[in-house]
């Protein structure tokens, strides 16, 4: 079941990469694909191996799966935020945003 949910979310992310025209929206679609395509299957694998198959080696596998899922949940949004910020600062984004609060704050002196 987890692989099915992950596969569906990966397909949705791939469609987002094809359909979205803006760099930031495509980056969001990729982040949804990474989190949805790997987080949910790992959570379900960890819970299944710890609950349905209660052997000592399966607790180890379940713990690793849950730890990896938590690591992906924490690092994927942080990584996409860093990529988006670097793209914004380098000014190589193809289409400018309609509202650019970061540029407005920088010009007003709030940010460096």
Automatic annotation (TrEMBL):
The lineage of its organism: Archaea, Thermoproteota, Thermoprotei, Desulfurococcales, Desulfurococcaceae. NCBIfam families: CPA3_mnhG_phaG (TIGR01300). This is Cation:proton antiporter. It comes from the Archaea. The keyword Cell cycle does not apply. Pfam families: PhaG_MnhG_YufB. GO terms for molecular function: sodium:proton antiporter activity. The keyword Iron does not apply. Keywords: Membrane, Transmembrane, Transmembrane helix. The chain crosses the membrane at residues 27-48, 60-84.
